[in-house]
Design brief:
Length: 297
């Protein structure tokens, strides 16, 4: 009897010293909820202000709109779509983003496969160069790249954005895909070669299907980066309505509209709808691609 009681006391002491995971879960949940709220509160404020009249935005905080009497309007969205032609900005952003996503991901996929599996002298040096370019600040290259594109007359055109985004996105894309492809079993690639598969067939029928989640993740990252970019678009494309993407147009609201910043909030909400839709559509592939780097094969 005494032995059983002492055993229970020992177990209780052990639990106090090493709490079970379930005892730590409430604290973990509270921390996760707190982080989510910190991220969501500014976004909710922008969303609420985008539906408020200008006279209320100027004098009252956004949280007061959540209490009666409710006064919401869609006039802000009507103004930026009709008066300021933000719809043209969406079209320009798509024209810039789609090629600037497809081109670097395609080139990076072939380059990563070559560096990972094809016999190539100086392979390690090339991989090191790709990694090294990631340490070069983008801002240091803006002036020479601008001068090169100006000499061939591409400044202020869509191809300028395609070239620049491809150049800046290739190093990271190649490095990430190289790691994903190099993690495949060597026996798989050798078996394909023994069966007579050409390198192109191995790439198309084995590498791409097995690393589709990684490719999907990279496509999402590149798409979001290009769509949300302001610096490159402002420098290499410019602010003309014929070519200006939505980010440049929304930034112009902040510069020219002064106190009417409720229009800026409406433009911001519209500008993030496409990235959110893309992320939600490819979320399963994105998660699989992120997790695929943790396991080989």
């Amino acid at each position: 009897m005494n032995g059983g009681a002492s055993s229970l006391r020992a177990c209780d002491a052990g639990l106090r010293r090493h709490p079970a995971p379930i005892r730590r879960r409430p604290l973990l949940h509270i921390m996760v909820i707190a982080v989510c709220l910190i991220w969501l509160v500014p976004t909710v404020g922008i969303l609420v202000n985008s539906f408020r009249p200008a006279e209320l935005v100027a004098v009252m905080g956004w949280w007061t709109a959540l209490l009666p009497p409710f006064r919401f309007t869609i006039q802000n969205y009507a103004d930026i779509l009709e008066t300021y032609d933000l719809a043209r900005g969406f079209l320009n952003s798509l024209v810039i983003t789609l090629p600037a996503t497809i081109i670097p991901v395609t080139i990076a996929a072939f380059a990563a496969y070559t560096l990972a599996w094809m016999p190539l002298r100086g392979r390690g040096l090339l991989v090191g160069l790709f990694v090294g370019t990631l340490a070069v600040p983008l801002q240091l290259t803006l002036v020479p790249v601008f001068e090169m594109l100006a000499r061939i007359g591409l400044i202020g055109t869509f191809p300028a954005a395609w070239v620049v985004h491809t150049a800046y996105g290739l190093p990271l894309a190649t490095y990430l895909l190289h790691n994903a492809m190099a993690a495949l079993p060597r026996e798989l690639i050798e078996s394909a070669a023994i069966d007579g598969a050409a390198p192109v067939d191995t790439f198309a029928r084995i590498i791409v299907p097995l690393r589709r989640p990684a490719l999907a993740s990279l496509i999402i990252f590149q798409f979001l980066w290009v769509w949300n970019d302001l610096l490159i678009a402002l420098i290499f494309v410019g602010g003309k309505s014929e070519v200006a993407p939505v980010t440049v147009m929304v930034s112009n609201f902040a510069n020219s509209l002064g106190q009417d910043w409720q229009l800026l909030t409406a433009g911001t909400v519209l500008s993030i709808t496409i990235p959110i839709a893309v992320f939600l559509a490819f979320q399963p592939s994105f998660i699989r691609g992120v997790l695929s780097g943790a396991l080989k094969g």
